[in-house]
Write a structure and sequence with these properties.
The complex is a heterodimer of chains A (69) and B (133).
Chain A lengths: L2 H9 L3 H16 L12 E4 L6 H16 L1
Chain B lengths: L1 E3 L15 E8 L2 E9 L6 E3 L1 H6 L11 E5 L4 E11 L6 E8 L6 E3 L4 H4 E6 L4 E6 L1
Parallel strand pairs in B: 3-8, 4-7
Antiparallel strand pairs in B: 1-10, 2-3, 2-6, 5-6, 6-7, 9-10
Classes of the chains: A mainly alpha (69), B mainly beta (133).
C-alpha cells in the first residue's frame, strides 16, 4: 500500500487515534539510530556555565556599585 | 506560546530564574516529567544520566559515539531519540546527548530544540516564547 492510498484512511481516524498513530511512528523512528540529527563522532560544544549563580550575583553587584558612583 | 522564567529551588531569588519549560519526555512506554533549560549556548540537547535511566534507556559505552565539550567537560554521550510534549505545542522528536552525569539540567540546545522551535527571550519581563517551526 502506498502513502497516497493510505492517507485518506488515516484522515478518517479520530483525533485520539491520530495522536496514537503519531506516537507509534515516532517510537519506531526512535529505534532507528540513523534518524538522529546528532552526528556520530562529532563534538558538540556546551558553552553555558550551569549553576553559576554566584558569579551572576557578583556581576549584578558590580553593576549596581558602578551605577552608584 | 509564552512561558515564565522559573527557579527550581524556592531558596533562589527571582533574579536567579531561568528559561525552563515543563515538558513530558517519552521513550517507548515510559514517560518522565522534566523542566528543560532553553539554552542557546548549547550545541545539543543534553539528558542527564538518571533521566535516561527513568526512560528505560540502557547505557552502552559502544553507543557513546558523540562527544560533548565545554562547560560540562569533555565526555562521551549516547544519542537518544525521545518524544517531547510541551502543553499547548505540537509534539516533537528531540535528539538528546545522554551523558553519564547527573549533576546537570535537562538542556534544550541548538540540535535540535532550536530547530523545532523559534525562541524569543524577554528577560526584562522574565518571559520567553516558543513558536513551532
Amino acid at each position: 500500500m502506498t502513502l497516497t492510498e493510505l492517507l485518506p484512511e488515516v484522515m478518517r481516524l479520530s483525533q485520539p487515534e491520530k495522536i496514537k498513530l503519531i506516537q507509534v511512528l515516532a517510537e519506531e523512528l526512535d529505534a532507528s539510530e540513523d534518524a538522529s540529527p546528532l552526528e556520530p563522532g562529532k563534538v558538540y560544544y556546551v558553552a553555558t556555565p550551569y549553576n553559576a549563580f554566584g558569579a551572576a550575583q557578583a556581576l549584578m553587584d558590580a553593576l549596581e556599585a558602578s551605577s552608584e558612583k | 506560546m509564552r512561558f515564565r522564567y522559573s527557579t527550581l529551588d524556592p531558596s533562589q531569588s527571582p533574579a536567579e530564574s531561568l528559561p525552563r519549560v515543563p515538558l513530558v519526555l517519552r521513550l517507548a512506554n515510559r514517560a518522565i516529567e522534566a523542566h528543560g533549560l532553553v539554552d542557546s549556548g548549547s550545541a545539543a540537547n543534553v539528558l542527564p544520566y538518571e533521566a535516561g535511566l527513568q526512560l528505560g534507556a540502557i547505557w552502552d559505552d559502544r553507543k557513546a559515539n558523540i562527544r560533548l565539550a565545554g562547560a560540562l567537560g569533555n565526555q562521551r554521550a549516547v544519542p537518544l531519540l525521545v518524544t517531547a510534549e510541551i502543553a499547548g505545542l505540537p509534539m516533537v522528536r528531540l535528539a538528546f546527548a545522554w551523558i553519564k552525569a547527573s549533576d546537570v539540567p535537562v538542556v534544550l540546545g541548538q540540535t535540535n530544540f532550536f530547530v523545532e522551535f523559534d525562541v524569543s527571550f524577554y528577560r526584562s519581563r522574565f518571559e520567553f516564547e516558543l513558536t513551532p517551526r
